[in-house]
Design brief:
Layout (H helix, E strand, L loop, with lengths): L10 E3 L5 E3 L14 E3 L21 H7 L1 E3 L12 E4 L5 E4 L5 E4 L11 E4 L7 E2 L1 H4 L15 E5 L2 E5 L5 E5 L2 E6 L2 E5 L3 H10 L6
Parallel strand pairs: 2-3, 4-10
Antiparallel strand pairs: 1-2, 5-6, 6-7, 7-8, 8-9, 10-11, 11-12, 12-13, 13-14
């Protein structure tokens, strides 16, 4: 499949290959474990260590070996069978039917008003902004997922790292939110938003 790239205005790439956007409506995520950071990185703050291959995302084996697993029903709320939790930074996050997942709130580095990030089962990308907001289910978490813990529900795992970063993943679809930016993995969102918004995907 041919990769499509967003306009290059106000885009720079740091030595680690992270793409930093001053303001870009659609994010691009192509290739192997491409991390996208909304906004500019703050100097003096180390990037997440990720795994040995250089990915920003924590290794699932490390999470299951060293983090405390919490039961999904500890995060159910009245009239909702889905999992809902608060991140240490106050994001309202959930895992829903068929493993869909996302968070709403002050998404680190996102443009003003861009306060949803999610992946919905059947979509080809983790995405943010209005395409995530229009599908985001109602629900308000009551309990915080503490650092160095995780919950798995419908084959999706969400975890809070020891540093308080928020990670969620379902197979190849995943995101990591740190104080300085948000990393995600998915297809070029300029193509996927058509699927997300209108229920049909362009060919190819």
């Amino acid at each position: 499949m041919r990769a499509h790239h967003a306009p290059q205005a106000q885009v720079a790439q740091d030595p680690q290959g992270r793409i930093m956007h001053g303001y870009c409506r659609w994010l691009v995520a192509v290739g192997s474990a491409v991390g996208l950071a909304f906004g500019a990185a703050f100097p003096g703050h180390a990037d997440p260590s990720g795994d040995a291959s250089g990915s920003p995302f924590p290794e699932m084996s490390r999470i299951t070996a060293w983090y405390t697993q919490l039961a999904p029903d500890e995060f159910f709320i009245p009239d909702h069978a889905d999992v809902w939790f608060l991140s240490p930074s106050g994001l309202n996050c959930g895992i829903w039917g068929w493993g869909s997942f996302g968070c709403t709130g002050a998404i680190p580095g996102a443009p003003p008003g861009d306060n949803h990030i999610a992946w919905f089962n059947g979509n080809r990308a983790v995405h943010h902004g209005w395409t995530a907001a229009m599908q985001f289910p109602a629900g308000q978490a009551q309990r915080t997922l503490p650092p160095r813990s995780y919950v798995t529900y419908n084959a999706t795992t969400c975890a809070i790292t020891p540093d308080g970063n928020t990670f969620c993943g379902h197979g190849e679809f995943k995101f990591l939110m740190t104080p300085t930016g948000t990393w995600l993995r998915g297809w070029d969102d300029r193509r996927s938003y058509v699927c997300n918004a209108y229920g049909s995907c362009p060919p190819g």
